[in-house]
Amino acid sequence: MVDPDAPILEAELHAYVDGELTADRRAAVEAWLAANPQDAARVAAWRAQADLINARYAGVAQEPIPPRLDVERLGRRERRWPLLAAAVVAAFVLGGLAGWFGRETWTGGVGGTRVLTADAIDAHKLYVVEVRHPVEVAGNEQAHLVQWLSKRLGYDVRAPDLGSIGLKLVGGRLLPGASGAGAALLMYEGPSGERFTIYCSRSQAPGTALRYQVAGSVAAFYWVDDNKGFVVSGPADRDRLLKVAQSVYDQENAPSGKKPG
Amino acid sequence: MSAFRDGVQAAIPALRRYARALTRDAETADDLVQDTLVRALRSEHLFHEGDVRSWLYTILTNLNRNRLRTLARRPAFASIEEEDVPGMSAPDSGARDIERALATLVDDQRAALLLVVLEGLSYREVAEVQGVPIGTVMSRLARARAQLKAYLDGERPPLRRIK
Predict the structure, then answer these.
(1) ipTM for this model
(2) Does a structural domain hold residue A229?
(3) Does the predicted TM-score (pTM) go above 0.80?
């Protein structure tokens, strides 16, 4: 294989420290180290680094696992959305505003979902009060609306059918979006005139589970999936909004854009 | 629970350890782990054979890379490390030093080093997790170790001296 008297390359020293060598190469490296104190010192330094890293972090694996990382719970949430959402709401209520928003430092703070939800809620507040021009393209031209938005945004925009929960599509509009890449806003209306919006925009933020946010009389459920961020906004009635968000989510994730079932 | 879920469950302590060392922030680390678990459970049907643990490390490593990319696009206004606190008690200094030393590494080098020395993965496994050839893993390791050594020996990058 290799000439036993040849100098040992640095790569092999690393492999030696990391236990990647066969027994005969290990012996060759040990012989080399005995005769080459400079390399022996390097190897010792690398081992000392590994010891420091382990001394600092190995203990983390002994810490009790926080409940939010429980696989069975997360798995149930994956299968059954209402449970996930209910748990989010429960966490919200129990944890209080400060605690819940405080834990979102990176998904919210990195210019991802926080900017997204802020834009979505602003758009919601601005347009739901419009009586004559709430949308650019009306819901009775749904095929045209969806085609237009999809073309402008460069990805499939769907207008979910929320008839089963009593909401009718008012229509939609194109918005600049947080990054100027564009965003779709779809508006729905309930029997007593209450309005909900779905805001959809590209998002580089990592995928998230469903999250809830209240801004005064308006609230939103939001999530990021497959580089798309969704914000479902409406009156601050958690249970009602949850049903809407869930229905939107289910249809977004249903194959080929058809209604599930 | 299924064997898959058992495998995921069993990997959580190690994932938390790896994420903590990667991010050096407990809350951020657990957020990463949670998003990793959600992804994994959602994609259970995509997982056929192989090592669940390696697969989880892969998801976590990718999610962290996305997180850092997003951070990088944001204008820099926060310094990565806190200012030196004079008179810090001696027992903490080793832990603090290694944290700071790790913070100076390039992300992929840090991940490679941690996967090997903290998580005990083989070079081959790290190559799979990072999606690169083994040779790349080895050069990342070598650079990471050289940089850590330089930092711990006191050759701090000049930027760090500026207050």
Answers:
(1) 0.84
(2) yes
(3) no
